[in-house]
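#struct-help
A.M.: can someone run this one for me? Single chain, 406 residues.
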Amino acid sequence: MNEQQRSIVHMDLDTFFVSCERLEDSRLNGLPILIGGASDRGVVASCSYEARKFGIHSAMPMKMAKERCPEAIVISGNSANYTKYSRMVTDIIQDAVPVVEKSSIDEFYMDLSGMDRFFGCYKYAGELRRKIMKETGLPISFGMSVNKTVSKIATGEAKPNNQMNIIDGAEKLFLNPLSVQKIPMVGLKTYQTLCNLGVKRIGTIQQMPLEMMESVLGQNGIAIWKKAQGIDNSPVIQYNERKSISSERTFEKDTIDVVRLKAIVFALAENLVFQLRKEKKVCACVTVKIRYSDFQTKTLQQRIPYSAADHEIIPMVMNLFEKLHNRRLLVRLVGVRMSELVHGNYQMRLFDEGSRLATLYHSMDDIRERFGERAIQRAIGMQVKRIGHFNPFRGETPMIVANRIV
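D.P.: on it. Structure tokens below:
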């Protein structure tokens, strides 16, 4: 379908964590709220609009945020509730829209192309927004245009708790006066580079030659230039709750060594959680699989709040293995699967630990990136010589067969 005929909607739940907390306790309404680690070493995961008036933003050190707004209420957060409300909204949208992409725990893209002849896309999206607010109590905003980039920026301009439609042909005019920081792929470093060139508004990029942007920022410069012109042909990718990554180990010789089996299951889980963080994803379901020597296969799964944190997921995996391994037979295969994946921030489950665990995971992941995925590991998994290298997000085979165990 031609881009000019598309109707793309971007919906984003407003200050999602804060809104969930206010549903649980209405006394928080209208007050400055900080979600995150309560200690001075913690970080702000989310904050209310009342707190933002003091210059507070996500990822700010909690100590600095409390200095700027001493009267702010600090809440450690309840990720189980956030997961519950996210699923409620997802179910409503999936029932109403033919093509929906869940890009994060609180963010959705929808392709309503072709629905104008039946409903009127903007009217339909508005009715869907009202239905979400009525059935969940959560405020939500959306932007609509012919592509994902302009719709996402429009959502930001519509907030809080509102909606906006950028009609076909008005994309450049809408983007012209906005800060270049509004372009989704422009981070702090890129923004500073552009500011050094005297470029602070999208309209300036619109007037620049493509070759100049390419010479300064390479391929990213080309992408940013196109987005500044309101050009984005990327499709809405259908969201599938069953999207997953998995890793299995089939033994050269069946084993009944429980210590060895636990070590392998632990190592498989540890590797998969690293892959989640590497791809900036979180999961909401973990599954453990055992195949015995008589080829009888058993699986057990558990739904969890969205996470990609070792201390949350790995104990759950090991608990599932303990429950599942209940036959005195040789084991032929063990496996771990993590499903219901969405893009997300693994720090969501680090509220109580503040920045300490976030720093630890970042350091561990950096070592693995530089020296290999088994360069740093916990003691329980050290007897597993290697897990194997694959990228489950790029279509590579996640099955691990007959690896040597030391």
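A.M.: thanks! The longest strand covers residues 244-255.
D.P.: also worth noting: Residues 258-278 form the longest helix (21 residues).
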